[in-house]
Amino acid sequence: MVASSSSLKLQDLIQEIREAKTQAQEREVIQKECAHIRASFRDGDPLHRHRQLAKLLYVHMLGYPAHFGQMECLKLIASPRFTDKRVGYLGAMLLLDERQDAHLLITNSIKNDLSQGIQAVQGLALCTLSATGSAEMCRDLATEVEKLLLQPSAYVRKKAVLTAVHMIRKVPELSNIFLPPCAQLLHEHHHGVLLGTIMLITELCERSPAALKHFRKMVPQLVHILRTLVTTGYSTEHSISGVSDPFLQVQILRLLRILGRNHEESSETMNDLLAQVATNTDTSRNAGNAVLFETVLTIMDIRSAAGLRVLAVNILGRFLLNSDRNIRYVALTSLLRLVQSDHSAVQRHRPTVVECLREPDGSLSRRALELSLALVNSSNVRAMTQELQGFLESCPPDLQADCASGILLAAERFAPTKRWHIDTTLRVLMTAGTHVRDDAVANLTQLIGGAQELHAYSVRRLYSALAEDISQQPLVQVAAWCIGEYGDLLLEGSCEETEPLQVEEEEVLALLERVLQSHMSLPATRGYALTALMKLSTRLRGDNKAAILEKIPLVERGGSQADEEAKESKETAQLSEAAPVPTEPQASKLLDLLDLLDGPSGDAQHPPPLDPTPGGALIHLLNLPCAPPPPAPIPNLKVFEREGLQLNLSFVRPPGTRTLLLITVTATNTSGGDVTHFICQAAVPKSFQLQLQAPSGDTVPAQGGLPTTQLLRILNPKKAPLRLKLRLTYNHFGQSVQEIFEVNNLPVETWQ
């Protein structure tokens, strides 16, 4: 197939390109035609210029270069013929943007066309300005657009309103120009004009505090418009599935949400209307669900009544029962946002949320898992943990790590008893041991070591679990540690809390040998097993000659329990002073030998009195305090300040989990305008684990109002120096702001 020697018509060009069997043939056709188009442009044929540009635009849509047609667009726009202007403006929208200086050359042409009385030409100019208008063009043409907002033609008014929306987004300081016409446009009966007006007012309120204050006076009028839509309808041609003009309803609800945020009077005015919309909207169709969802968001963002907020949560609960997966996902996401502020109301839908864990859709089950973990508290921890453990046994591999970590965190916070805590952790290790956090082994050994009454129970449970499966490395490590520490209790067989278990020495040693020889055992696991074997040599045969292999004393992480044990240790030391001291015990000889490294033997210094409690020699040998003082509070840190918005970080390291750092991000605002759409995102190095809790809100009120807070949970198993990267996005004084910065000066107490 060979292209003709003369220039093709647009229809013929499209047909030849479609008939090309290879990409090379397509390029050949396009290159030949582009050569004809260039020649026609050079010849300056004014009658066929728009036809040549139309073909070039089709070539541009196929992805081929068409930049040489930019100046021809300007010539066609300046032409008095409508056929030329139509193609010229279309070419300008496709080929020109703010990066080309040529787009500034059409400013005068657009200004002239806007001042003409021809509606079709005015519409073309407005469409081009709203699509490609730069900040400079918007400043130059704002007055002309403002005049067209009140033109008799609804066609022109609609396009002028949409162009004004673009101008406000480009140049927020133009807000004052468009404020006066909006009040008159709210009385409009044309659907397109009214919808565009609501969008324009929304943009003005989001970007200008003065506009927000101005339009709050019009809340009753907006309420009246929406009530008319709900009760009598606006126009039948804009109804969808029996819902009266859902697009206009959604836009009005979004505007009411902005106007009622942090404003008691406006919120009170719209409360009754929101209740009416929430109860009367038909939810059998998707259009009704869209209106209902926007109603819920509005109720939650304004200062609504408590009963209205419960109604909103119940609507989201009904969404969870919807057959549409998208609606269920939206409901789960919204409930996750509300769980901090309306926890009790969300709790009522806990059974439905748990049912969503079984969703085959991965995105739904992940959202359901996040919400289920957020709903766990001290009153439902047993039931919720049982459901989550059932989900852990069958969940996809990509969710096992999040589920396992969530169960362990919930158990640490809300465990009713130590035995329940141990059983729960063991079950997680047996089910998904390879997916747990790095500090799970240390936490469980600390838990077992601190529960003396459960030593026999724990060692039997772990021995049985280890005999069944040695593939879960964290489980094997804890079991080996426990057998090494309490192996003598394993052989006694006198634990009333478990089934009778008769274990011989040879069976225990054979099991540890099996762990050592397994190809699945990590180096750390073999280390635990070797240590257990060494300790069993003193536990099982009664050989007490190696004090270093005594049971490891529990090193408390601070708190009241450590203080009580320190008091008991002191009392025991006082009693030991009155008791006869045995002559040169084995541990004393060991310490005297090691003391030779500190100085010459002739020194008059003597070692401190030894703690006679079991393991006391090892504590002094390792220079570990019996009861360390509680850690000092970590100082707060200011990390960001701009135009009255300030960001402060406060830190807490829970005494029970020293690898866990809780950071509270507090945003305050001392400026005269609210900070809206506030989002704080964080990132940490790969060796850390970060969990962001839902913020208390997305608006930071002006004049030092109630601050916005957000909790960051950071796990630092390696206790490495912490680096934090933050990204802030928000709107302030009509400007959209994004800040990305690193926090490298965190106090050393946050990670050491």
UniProtKB/TrEMBL annotation:
Query: Which topology term describes how it sits in the membrane?
Result: Peripheral membrane protein
**Predominant subcellular localization, coarse grouping:** membrane
Kindly indicate where the leader peptide sits in this chain: none
Region Disordered: start and end of each range?
A: 559-584, 596-615
Give UniProt keywords alphabetically. Answer: Coiled coil, Cytoplasmic vesicle, Golgi apparatus, Membrane, Protein transport, Transport
Xref: PROSITE patterns: GAE
What is the superkingdom listed in this entry's lineage? Eukaryota
Extract the InterPro entries matched here. Answer: Adaptor_Complx_Large_Subunit, AP1_complex_gsu, ARM-like, ARM-type_fold, Clathrin/coatomer_adapt-like_N, Clathrin_a/b/g-adaptin_app_Ig, Clathrin_app_Ig-like_sf, GAE_dom
In its UniProt entry, what is this protein called? AP-1 complex subunit gamma
Q: Among its keywords, does the record have Membrane?
A: yes
Tell me which family the UniProt entry assigns to this protein. Belongs to the adaptor complexes large subunit family.
Indicate where this protein resides in the cell: Cytoplasmic vesicle membrane; Endomembrane system; Golgi apparatus
Instruction: Give the taxonomic lineage as stored in the record.
Output: Eukaryota, Metazoa, Chordata, Craniata, Vertebrata
Q: Which positions are tagged coiled coil?
A: 3-30
| Domain spans labelled GAE | 632-747
